[in-house]
Specification:
Rossmann fold; 2 domains; nine-stranded mixed β-sheet; 26% strand
Length: 329
Amino acid sequence: MNIGVIGYKGHSKKIIDHISKDNSLKLIVFCRKIETSNKLNLLNNIKNITYSSELKSLDDCEAVIISSSNESHLHYIKYFLTKNTFILCEKPACIDLEEYNFLKNLSSDQKKRIYFNFNLKKSILFDLISSMLRKNNYGNLFHISISMSYGIAFKSNFQNNWRSKKDNIFQTIAGNLGIHYINLIEHFFGKTSNIFINFSSVANENFIDTSNININFKKNISSSIFLSYASPYSNLITLYFTDAIIEINNGLVREFSPRDTYDKKGLFKSPNEKIIEKIPKDFMNKSLENSLDYFILKVKNNDEFSINDFNQNIESSLTLINSNYFGYK
């Protein structure tokens, strides 16, 4: 089976490295410059990978994976819709209202052939939250707090990195990282009622490197997402239930309960802590592999994708398109 991949470095290389392990697949990787494809073919020692600078060389592929710049996603979607090809498109689904309306108005048959890769839905984090909500042992989940940071803003090459650009919301840290968690939380809580984003420049005033995203949903449900490229690494997720607090941090899942916990004076104190589960620290990378495997299997079985997932995924992009944001220059 022939699989086309648009993009060859960074995140795209992770995709290529994983799916090329399947010897039943033949990968045709598109690079825009012929000098690049020639060089990569010369250095390539993997038999089922070919690099090409001709987009038409992907026309006969059963599926194509779009892992190029955000601004090019819809261009390639439009092209391969005419080829009746299965499409995996990396997030975001769209970057402005015109693109959103185009995708929204596609036919059902067209939507069923497109899979937007919000791979957290194929992660152990997704399974963990789903299980907690299904078992209902902790009362009602009413707030999710996410804190994620990396220190790359202090690296000398950050100013030339695409993450430092700000041509649109999806080039910022809120659009690049935040949309993963917005999509995940909207799956559980439904469409946002309003969203406010504060941007700041901590490492260098010329670049946005930090954002605070505050989201409100219906039924008194909310979420806060702190993201920064200007701090040591952290990946902390806290779930606030009415009867317990669940903290996911550094591969450990901790439960703080019961709610009514008192000291000797009869005053509230922090509940008892216990580790209830251990999860891989790199669950994000594993979720990418799971998502790719899911897509490939669906294509091999000539199976269609969920229209509900399609609609939910473009709605997550719309959430950011319509967001209220401050400190963005």
